[in-house]
Structures are given as structure tokens and as C-alpha cells.
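User: I'm preparing a small set of examples for a lab meeting where we compare how different chains pack in three dimensions. I only have the primary sequence for this one, and I'd like the structure in C-alpha cell form so I can line it up with the others. Please keep the answer compact; I'll paste it straight into my notes.
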Amino acid sequence: MATQSALLIGEITHARKEWESISSLLTLKYTGPFNAEMLEVLPKTLKYICHNGAGYDNIDVAACTEKNIAVSSTPVAVNDATADVGIFLMIGALRQAHVPITALREGKWQGPITAGGKEYRTTLGHDPKGKVLGILGMGGIGREMAIRAKAFGMKIQYHNRTRLSADLEVGATYVSFDELLANSDVLSLNLGLNASTRHIIGATEFTKMKDGVVIVNTARGALIDEKALVAALDSGKVRSAGLDVYECEPQIEPGLVSNPNVMLTPHIGTGTYETQKEMEILVLDNLRLAVQKGELITQVPEQKK
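Assistant: Understood. Below is the C-alpha cell output for the 305-residue chain.
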């Protein structure tokens, strides 16, 4: 309904003001990405794209900018819910909870269960207390992950392209990318997907990590080379993983599905009534401001520059 409302507002705007604003939630499976080819067939009066999501890798911002189309997303609104799922996956991965949960539902108490032709039983997990959580991408979601993890007694380190101001570090320690890989007991991916971050974690990066590291990803699946992750899990380099996002959604790398040491959720990071409401309101507020003043509240940072 929120997408339809946004589209309807866009149509009214086009009729009255000779410009058009649209929301790009859920359109991807019907239209494909909002790339240069898509922009060529959209109305020439298009001036604003208001995207219902924090990540906007499905929108070619450079092509939009070239056509003087302003793009907004929904940061901040998604922070709490996504961080909550990140912590859920982290705890589940540390405790390797998939095995006992599956065994219980199969009437086998703590096991065994069969996966990938092997039998698995419930094993001892690990506490988060005292572990180093490395956050790759200390934006709003990363900071909320840090705040929550500190309550579990974790030590927080992070890496960004640039160091944050002290008031935004929420007590976390800034380290280099290689230091983050080497120091982290748990590595959480919380950065946007673009050409420079695609497969930022791959075979080379896994070799730099601690043996038995835990990987958590609630950002974008393509940040990880999933085949390299499967290999690292099979070798024991990565002890377990908690994943909410995947490179080729809704398809998931078979080696991840068959591995009971991996906690999987189907991209539910923002899947709460409260968060969806906040996101939808922000989309509509962006549309309203675009119509009234020709501005956007949360224009993407590439265009602000």
C-alpha cells in the first residue's frame, strides 16, 4: 500500500506540476534495477525517486544525477530493527543454535540432525562477553550494533573509509581494515554495496582473520564472496555465520543452506511494523517536500556532494 500511495502521489504531482516523484520499493522484481536503460524509458519530467530502503544499490545514482533526478533513501528509520537482527544472528551463530532448534522440531531434543550427508549434535557454544566485535561500516546500523554489543560485554572495533568524530564512535576503537580482520572474533558487515565494496570479504580476507571467526551480514549479500565463505566454513577458518542477506536473492548458495553452522534469515532486517511505518512515512515526507519545495529530506550522500 505504501508503494501504491507513493506512486499515486507521483502521478498527481506529474499532472499538476509537470514533474513526477516515485517510490522504488518492490518494483525491482518487475522493472529490474533503476539503471541508465530504465531511466531512458521513464517520463522526461521525472525529477525525484524516493526509495523505500536504506540501501539503494538498485539505483544508478550517477545516471540519475546526469539526468538531474534527485534520489532519496530511508536511513535512520532502519537502524534499530536491522541491528536487532544482527545481534540475533550473532548470538545464534556463536551458540550454533540451528542444530538444537532443528533437532527439537524433529523430536530429537539435542540431536542428531542430518545435513549435507553428515550428522550433527548440539555442541557447546561461545559467550559474546569479552569477544572483539569488528564492525565494517560504522554508519547508523553499525553504531546501533556497537551499542547493543557493549551490553553483552563485547569489545568494539570498527573500520570506515574515514574515522568518525569521537561523539559518533560510541566507545568503539578505530582500526585499519587489516587490523579489523586480524582482531575480530565476530565480524559484522554494515556498509553499503557499490563497486568498491562488492566482494570486500573474499578468500584473501578470510586468510587474514582469526581461526574460528564468526561472520555476520545484515547489509548486502554481495559484500561477501559466498563461495569463498563456504570454503572458509568447510575448512573451519570460519566457525559459523549469521546471514540475513544473499548475493542472488532469493537464491542462496547451496553450501550455506546445507551447513548447520550457519544461521539464515530471509532478509527480514527491517521486517517490523514499527520500522516499516517509519520508512513509509519518510518516503511520503520526502515526496511531500519534493512537491512543495523541490527538496528531499534524506537525499543520498553522493548527490549532496
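A couple of notes for your slides: The first strand starts at residue 20 and ends at 23. Residues 203 and 228 are 5 Å apart (CA to CA).

User: Perfect, thanks.
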